């Protein structure tokens, strides 16, 4: 009975009384089976609880990502005043996009550093940068100093945008990877919502106090403290541990987050996968040369650009200015902007639910079609209703609808795909290259948007976004593969096999 019950535990305890009898238990021995069943259920629950802790703590990097990118939405209106930093539209663009340029560099370097030093250690370093850069932004006396601190803050944002999805993808089982990785995207939009809500509260309550923008920026230092202390108690990625020869540590981590049978099976799969790549001594950019890897990098870069050319971050960074341009007062725009944050969070929850039921390709294409329709509608109606009292409410309703498609379909699938596509040895570097393209596209749009809005108006700007969205839809339709329900090693094998077959 002892031996057979132990075997049941190794089988994952998916069977109970009937399985116990099938395996030779007599009715008198069933209490033993009950005991092992209870032990196994408790172990499974412990694994899930541990994974939840890993997810919650690490995604504070996503929360900081969201807050630091979203807070500028409301802070710009106050720091631009003549008695504060007296910003012109061009300088506003640099204040907002200084973070984005830093994020491009941070994502490019962050992947390599995370590959060399580990995902956990990288997140600890990023927490420190988040903390001091946020305080530096809050006390900046001039626009150039603020832009410099926003650049440093961007280094942390870019590093987090690469490291957190990679860490979560490597910690999660294949059947839960979509849900776990997209928790980071949920935390990003939660951080943006938090920024919008606090901006509205502080702006409406203390709007006459010009330096209120400093408090808006300083709040970002608090989640950084949580991230740093939380990651001290988190384990390193088991795949990174195996890659760096720490085999026993990797197996120990896997046993904390998987059943014993699942841990051993995944451990063997990781080792087999590394054996297939043993000719690569140390990851470098020359290792991106094989055709099958170039294909992955091309897809990753394309998906990243497609996610940004929808213009989503123009709404997230400049939503207050867009609503003010449409006819709202600054205070009313701050309050209305909260609706953008709320729908982003709700849409992200919906998207996480949808990804458990549908493939990556149909979801990302649905998001692109929906966002293009909303952008086109904003362009048409802002021209038709110019000067009318209904215009700001129409624009607000359309931006909310746009964000439903963007945050419910397009954005979460993008970050999930980036965490899935690249092979283990090159994952941090590959994601870094893809996210570099994402942030550079974000930087170009973020820096140019105030100029386009000021020079050409609302309609033309959104017509342009709708037009380039067609290119993104065509790219996804032709090049992006389906990855749902396959392990990271299976995805890599398929790319490698396809590359060898075409060669």
Describe what you observe in this structure.
There is one protein chain. It contains 21 helices and no strands. α6 crosses α20 (427-479), α8 runs antiparallel to α9 (177-206) and α9 (177-206) packs antiparallel against α17 (330-355). The chain is globular and about 65 Å long. It has helices at residues 2-10, 17-22, 30-58, 60-70, 72-79, 89-117, 119-138, 143-171, 177-206, 212-218, 221-232, 238-243, 247-257, 260-276, 291-308, 312-326, 330-355, 360-384, 391-421, 427-479, 488-502. The protein is an all-alpha fold and 503 residues long. 81% of the residues lie in helices and 0% in strands. The model is unreliable at 5-39 (pLDDT under 50).
How would you summarize what this structure contains?
By secondary structure, this protein is mainly α. Helices cover 81% and strands 0% of the residues.
Topology:
Layout: H1 2-10, H2 17-22, H3 30-58, H4 60-70, H5 72-79, H6 89-117, H7 119-138, H8 143-171, H9 177-206, H10 212-218, H11 221-232, H12 238-243, H13 247-257, H14 260-276, H15 291-308, H16 312-326, H17 330-355, H18 360-384, H19 391-421, H20 427-479, H21 488-502
Helix pairs in contact: 1-3, 3-8, 4-8, 4-9, 4-11, 5-10, 5-16, 6-7, 6-8, 6-20, 7-8, 7-10, 7-11, 8-9, 8-19, 8-20, 9-10, 9-17, 9-19, 13-14, 15-19, 15-20, 15-21, 16-17, 16-19, 16-20, 17-19, 18-19, 18-20
Query: Biggest sheet: strands, sense, closure?
Result: none
Low-confidence stretches: 5-39
What's the total number of strands?
0
Rg over CA atoms: 24 Å
Instruction: Note the total helix count.
Output: 21
Helix content: over 70%
Give the overall shape, derived from the CA principal axes.
globular
Strand content: under 5%
Gap from first CA to last CA? 55 Å
Oligomeric state of the chains in view: single chain
Residue-averaged pLDDT: 80
Structural class based on helices, strands and sheet pairing = mainly alpha
**Could you give the order of the helices and strands?**
HHHHHHHHHHHHHHHHHHHHH
């Amino acid at each position: 009975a002892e031996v057979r019950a132990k075997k049941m535990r190794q089988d994952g305890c998916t069977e109970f009384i009937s399985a116990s009898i099938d395996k030779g238990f007599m009715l008198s021995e069933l209490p033993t089976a009950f005991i092992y069943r209870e032990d196994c259920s408790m172990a499974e629950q412990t694994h899930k609880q541990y994974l939840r802790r890993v997810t919650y703590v690490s995604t504070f990097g996503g929360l900081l990502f969201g807050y630091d990118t979203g807070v500028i939405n409301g802070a710009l209106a106050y720091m631009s005043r003549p008695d504060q930093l007296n910003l012109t539209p061009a300088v506003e663009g640099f204040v907002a996009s200084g973070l984005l340029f830093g994020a491009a560099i941070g994502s490019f370097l962050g992947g390599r550093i995370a590959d060399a030093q580990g995902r956990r250690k990288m997140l600890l370093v990023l927490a420190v940068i988040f903390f001091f850069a946020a305080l530096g932004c809050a006390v900046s006396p001039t626009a150039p100093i603020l832009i410099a601190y926003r650049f440093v803050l961007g280094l942390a944002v870019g590093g987090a945008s690469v490291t957190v999805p990679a860490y979560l993808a490597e910690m999660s089982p294949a059947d839960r990877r979509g849900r776990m990785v997209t928790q980071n995207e949920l935390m990003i939009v939660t951080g943006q919502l938090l920024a919008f809500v606090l901006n509205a509260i502080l702006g409406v309550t203390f709007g006459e106090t010009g330096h209120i923008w400093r408090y808006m920026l300083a709040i970002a230092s608090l989640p950084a403290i949580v991230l740093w202390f939380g990651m001290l108690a988190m384990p390193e990625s088991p795949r990174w541990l195996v890659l760096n020869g720490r085999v026993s540590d990797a197996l120990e981590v896997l046993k904390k987050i998987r059943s014993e049978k699942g841990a051993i099976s995944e451990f063997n799969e990781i080792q087999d996968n590394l054996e297939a790549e043993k000719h690569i001594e140390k990851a470098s950019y020359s290792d991106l040369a094989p055709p099958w890897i170039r294909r992955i990098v091309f897809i990753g870069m394309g998906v990243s650009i497609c996610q940004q050319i929808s213009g989503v971050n123009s709404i997230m960074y400049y939503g207050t200015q867009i609503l003010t341009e449409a006819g709202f007062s600054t205070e009313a725009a701050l309050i209305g902007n909260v609706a953008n944050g709320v729908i982003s969070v709700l849409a992200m929850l919906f998207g996480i639910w949808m990804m458990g039921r549908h493939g990556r390709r149909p979801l990302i294409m649905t998001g692109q079609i929906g966002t293009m329709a909303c952008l086109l509608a904003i362009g048409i109606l802002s021209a038709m209703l110019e000067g009318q009292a209904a215009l700001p409410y129409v624009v607000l309703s359309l931006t909310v609808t746009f964000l439903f498609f963007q945050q419910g379909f397009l954005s979460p699938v993008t970050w999930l795909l980036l965490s899935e596509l690249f092979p283990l040895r090159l994952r941090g570097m590959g994601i870094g290259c893809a996210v570099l393209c994402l942030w550079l596209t974000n930087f170009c749009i973020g820096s140019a948007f105030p100029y386009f809005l000021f020079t050409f108006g609302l309609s033309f700007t959104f017509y342009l976004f709708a037009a380039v969205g067609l290119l993104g839809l065509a790219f996804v339709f032709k090049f992006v593969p389906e990855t749902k329900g396959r392990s990271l090693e299976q995805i890599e094998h398929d790319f490698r096999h396809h590359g060898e077959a075409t060669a």
